[in-house]
Amino acid sequence: MTKHFDVIVVGLGPVGTLLTLLLNQVGIKVLGIDKDISIFPLPRAANIDDEGLRIMQRVNLESAYSDHSSNPSGAIFTDKNLNRLSGMDLPDDFYTGNGWLPTYFFWQPYADKTIRDFLLNSGTTISLGMELLSFSQNSEIVELNTYNSESEKECKYTSRYLIGADGASSLVRKLCGIRLESLGYDKDWIVVDVETNDDHDLGNYAIQVCDPDRMTTFIPFPKPFKRWEFLLLDDEDKHEMMKERKVRELIGPWLESEKYKVIRSASYRFHSVLAKNFQKEKVFLVGDSAHQGPPFMGQGMMSGYRDAINLYWKLNFVLKKSFPENILKTYNVERRPHAQFIVEGSAAIGKLMEAYSIGSRDDTIDEIPEEVINRGYGSFRIPGLEKGILFNQSSCNNPLIGELFPQPIQSHNNKIKERNDKILGDDFSILSKIDINIKKRESIFLNKINAKFIILKDKEIKENQWLRMFMQSSDTYIVRPDRYVFGATTKDISFSDLLTDLQSQLEV
Fold first, then answer.
1. Which of 44-48, 328-332, 452-456 has the highest mean pLDDT?
2. 40-78, pLDDT tens digit by residue?
3. Which domain covers residue 418, as residue numbers?
């Protein structure tokens, strides 16, 4: 008998697992499948940012990353002798509006094991060793054909929606006929992870070495681990360069050979590609299936987490709150431009490395075009949303619309005592420093979206610098389930204006 689900997620890597857990948590009948029985045993992703940890709070898994992490002192560009050319420094105690430090380097095998164990014990329906063969869809359902490697049997499933979280070579994407668009960066690199056996200190900066002979990236993983990424030159054979003898030659200027063991060396195509569309009718792409960029920005996994939280709340509103299916179309509208910025930004850092490398060789660093420098550095700032489910009245020019609303926190002496994001709830929230007069028809809609009202006290606002900044700009905010600001009141825009606009967008 064919089993039916609300949503089927293909691929249980970090992004697919997060989305599966989020959907299960709100009572959506979800099935997660993966062709592999075990998690990948080696590291791939290297860092998670403040927004990522805030997202992981939603499934109580932030400690999977924070407990096995280190915080870099910054990111710098250097010449081949490690002389600093430029860069940015991060203060030790700088907590962002999301309530976390800006970035964390983590050892992925530790994190993935914690997350997989949590998934297995969460009551979520999953099927490991299950490979997608094909699917078809109509206006009502998606029908999947799969193969179970343990039972050696084919299985059929149906679902309202299908999610492709199946990585860079995504079969879901291919079966949808969605092409990848190249965004202009395409080079082979060798990635090397090592475990050190002493306390040799290579510093706490992520380093982009702009060496004209071979560009290199260094990542200070939490001890005892470290990572190097080496550009593969045109005349080099990647299989030869991955041999331990060659790897040790590359690491030689950094560490003595007897002080580490090589955990792995692998060749990766660092390229910038973006799916032409993140949705085809009832099928959605998330993570690497939708976008891939070089790792210089450290935002690959993070872009996938943003996909997951964006799609999760919209599926929740359609499946559990009976809102029209049209709101799902905003997934591509919101996420594709955002992902494009990340992919292009990562490539821009790579292009700045190239410019510095050529400049240091030819003594022409002062001649690097300003737009190359500005784009490379500008890539480190993650933008907000610019279109989608956002207040769109033409008279509104509030720059905080589309930005993440600060996480309510309790702190003492610049240390976080408690992160209180849960008070915002799982749905829309309204945060105000004044009492709001709610009309009866408005109350009906607010109940439908399960909106949570929070009146902020002066003391709460004064004690949180980020909250203080937001509440200086407006009396009242409507915040989306993914914590992005939908809209804010001004002297010209009332709370009723905001609510009317939100209702028109959700009930279209």
1. 328-332
2. 888 889 999 999 999 999 999 999 999 989 999 999 999
3. 409-506
Identify whether the C-beta of residue 401 lies closer than 8 Å to the C-beta of residue 485. yes
The whole-angstrom separation of Cα 57 and Cα 420 is 10
Burial of 482 (0-12, 13-18, 19+ CB in 10 A): buried
Residue at 393 is within a domain: no
Q: Is position 354 within any domain?
A: no
Does 450 reside within a domain?
Answer: yes
Convert the pLDDT of each residue in 71-104 to its tens digit: 999 999 999 999 999 888 888 888 999 999 999 9
CATH number of the domain enclosing 419: 3.40.30
Q: Quick one: DSSP state of residue 297? A: G
Residues 110, 14 share a domain: yes
**142 and 288 co-located in one domain:** yes
- Give the whole-angstrom CA distance, residue 400 versus residue 398: 5
* Cβ contacts of 412 within 8 Å, gap of 6 or more: none
pLDDT of residue 371: 87
Which helix (H) or strand (E) covers residue 269, if one does?
strand 260-275
| CA separation for the pair 454, 237 (Å, rounded) | 60
Residue type, 43: P
Instruction: Give the C-alpha separation, 44 to 279, whole Å.
Output: 26
